[in-house]
Amino acid sequence: MTIAFTIGYRVGERKIAGVDFCLHVREGKLAFAKSSPDWSLGGGDVSEILKENNEMEENGSRVSEVCEGGGSNDSIPNTECLSLDEAPKKRKVMQPRSDAWNHFEKYDDPSGAKREKCKYCEKTYAAATKGNGTTSMNNHLTKYPKMPRKIENNQTQLSFLLASNGTNEGVLTTWKFDQALSRRALAQMIILFELSFSFVGKEGFKKFIGVTIPQFQIPSRRTLTRDCYELYCEQRQSLKKSFNEARPKICLTTNTWTSIQRINYMCLTAHFIESDWKFHKRIIIFCPISSHKDDDMAAVITNCLLDWGLENIFTITVDNASSNDVTVREVSKQLTTWGTNIMNGKHLHVRCMAHILNLIVQGGLKEIGVSIERVRQAVRYIRLSPARIRKFKECCESQKLTSKRTLCLDVSTRWNSTYMMLDTA
User: pTM of the entire structure?
Assistant: First the structure.
């Protein structure tokens, strides 16, 4: 197959018009060559033009040999061929770069035409790639009042800070958006309110951030997890520094219990006074334990002290269980090994006064245990179903008994809960 076409040609500063070219397909390759030209000179001697042409050929700008138009494909001498594999690839589709596309979304109407729709007012415009640009979208965004305005990260804004005493008085200050501080505040909120890490992926939170702080880039769940862990490590180092500056010693309190899933837990809290003479208490471990035996509890406490580097322990407060006597004795031996046991641990063991008081009150309540048990059974019966609670309220209203509190059951380990049950009943 042969395709003939004509193009303009320039040699040096002189123009030669009407040069014919032929495009051939031979052995699966494309080839082109000049055919017999009808030279139309723009002025000057032909010999001079050919001389200049020969000089260009010597410099690497060689022109293909002339061939007879319509001749055989095999008769084309010195024809430069271009392989089909070397043909230029299809041009890559460019992604939209205008900021207007952040506020519009593309779609196809029923007729198949491409259109764009505003995310805020759903106004539509034509979105053909060749015939339409972004001017109409930008004009719409400048006039639409509900469109969130773009704020540069380094732009300073005005902020009204309320007074710390809770009054309406405040101070007008400047404020600048900071992505790092915003992510830190988000991690603190997740920790304080015990929210799940997937909270940042919920649509309600995304919509709230998009309206209030559109320039804030919401982190992913994994990024938020790393932020919370980094915050934990930072607070841990700060707490270690406070322990080193504590004066003069640190007091520990511990508590153990079993959950409804039959899992044993232990919580160890450190109480200390900082260099500013302010009293503080911090939980240094909260973990499951294998059992409430003295050896297991002593091992957990000792490992915790080693992990935090705590040696200046003054007292350990535990409940009145007999197993805690052995626990405190084992910890005292470890402190003696470290050389930090004050008076050989004579005042290390402190029994919890609240537990002792609870045992005293529970022993006294046994004298009126029959009456208390009747009240307890009545409260348990009423709280068993919503219908009984509603009927109980109707009876109270008929007897003109008014109370804003609801019935509650007591807990055997808390004597004050028994008092609250009797008081509300």
Answer: 0.55
